[in-house]
Design brief:
Length: 88
Amino acid sequence: MAFPTAVNNQITDSVTQVNTKVLGDSPAVATGNFMLATSQALSNAAHNATPAQQSNGITTQAALVTGLNTMFTIDPASAAVRSAINYR
């Protein structure tokens, strides 16, 4: 049996309702926090994509220049003679 209290029943009911409201809001707050964290992660990924593309472009250009330099340093006549000798 509960002890009698001097607190009005309306007070205890309002406190119970506030506690229930707080518990009811918890899933919405958790979902909002999750969505905020996800959006921040996606925006960071988008911001990081730009320097990654720039770096990839520089690497591609360096590989192209190296390949062209290699092609232009080969003497076509001596290469043709070597391949004809190896072909026999």
